[in-house]
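EI: anyone free to look at a 149-residue chain?
SC: sure, send it
EI:
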Amino acid sequence: MLNPFRILRLLAHVRRPSCIAVMRVFTDGFWLKKGYEAMTFFGTIVTASEGLDSEELVRHETIHLRQAQSTHDSWTLFYLLYFWYILRALPQNRRMKNAAYRINPFELEAYRHMDDPSYLEQCKEKGATEWRTFARMKPRERLKKFYHK
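SC: here you go
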């Protein structure tokens, strides 16, 4: 049975992004919007299905961890920026379903590199900062560049 309050236990154990070596997996579909497989929640991967076995999906969520490390090692700043970019891109949802999510600079970087096993090693050395390049673009530009070729 789903218990939406289980997520509160995760909040009690939140650590700075730099203190997380391996992300734990927490299974509870209550928190995920239909059509989404997983999300990063303060250094924990929340997934709807048992036995998360997709390397690409784990890599995608781990890139978000590296991005949080690159936002002054702060989950708060990471999530504030994440939702700011979503809000700024909401008008693009009229042009394409879920555009605000898809053209979020953090998601663009994670989707671009989730198939590259060496990217996480690069991020350890240089940080996951490609999202900053995308953030300098206007939401409409990101939509055109990445989805209307």
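EI: The beta strands are 24-27, 38-41, 44-47.
SC: 👍
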